[in-house]
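Q: Could you fold this chain for me?
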Amino acid sequence: MRRNAKSKFGISLSVILLILSVIGVALGPTAAQAKYSALIMDDSTGTILHAQNIDTLRHPASLTKIMTLYMTFEALRDGRLKLDQNLTVSRRASRMPSSKLGLGQGETIKVRDAVMALITKSANDVAVVVAEGIAGSESKFAEKMTAKAREIGMSKTTFRNASGLFNKTQKSTARDMATLAHRMMADFPEYYSLFDTKAFTYRGRTHKNHNNLLGRYAGTDGIKTGYIGAAGFNLVASVTRHGVRLIGVVFGGRTSKARDQKMMALLDQAFIGYEAVAIRAPRKPDMPELGETQVASAGQANPFLQRVNSALTIAAHAAEPSQAPVQQAPVQLASAEPMGEWSIQVGAFRSKSRAHGAAEAAQSKLGTLVEQSMVAVVPTRGSKPLFRARIAGLEKKTAFAACNSMKQRRFDCLVLAPTNAPQIAERQ
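A: Sure. Below is the predicted structure, expressed as structure tokens.
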């Protein structure tokens, strides 16, 4: 048998095999795909809203510094460190590769500056300084990091250093990183707000936060990025809108831009169903006009807007009940208290604008009966959501009276109770 047999086209068998092997590599998973994990979690309930490879071990890269900061805040809380305390830079710390502040051996840095350098610059030299300052050596600090990980529920994570630089046995998971982010916020709320810092100036040089979602994606308040070649581009993000905080984790982005876009897309999808996406203030001459995005940012300072936020959140979380016997309520009411917790639904539409128009039209038809109400358009979840047209902020009697009035006009109507009350349906 000839060793270099040729096909009838004159191509050697070895060349054919080489071509097939190249095609096989091209069709196989890319390096980025092999590193990819993603998770979106409701922080208040722990509900996982999106999951892909969330328990697969990955290199955390500089997400490791979230635990380094957790340990630092714990030492501050326990009195083992003070914010104005000086930490000395060792020879080993000074020789760490970038990203770094460029600290020299024998220099000192205050703990408060070290914290800001870790959050914004993700400085590897500072990570070693902090580790040595707390535990005497980075290796001992890493042991304490792993022990703390187990203590707070990060069951699969192993830390080998404080910086996140490559170590083949330093691994974590998307679920564990979401757990760490949750515990950071819950255990150290007084320090967590520092993760919202967009830039940090040290010795005349300003270092921009690597988290590009800050100031770009509405509601983002932290927390940390990471990158090494073995990991790809990683990100843990926290975003709060209309009183709902979601924690997102992405491992293995191909680029920082692709990672950020993926995170924002996942959060956009997860927020569907939590937010009232279109609103209008109660129709009172002395009440401020509200735009679609004003409520969440203004609500904390204005008591009226706080009540608007509360009513909208309740309306957004009210589930559509199954059809039940119609319950009657008197149409005429002597009075109606503002900002109740009940709402009515007057339709569901494929178009947000149509839903908004239907709710406004119903509000107009009902006139003074619902003068203390507001419009809320609440999307269902899914790639093709329905937009539910609701009138929110009603008292129970007012909600039934309004729905009866709509029925008399031959319009569909559904009474929605707050989540803490028995759900009742009213449909024509």
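A (continued): DSSP finds 14 helices and 14 strands in the chain.
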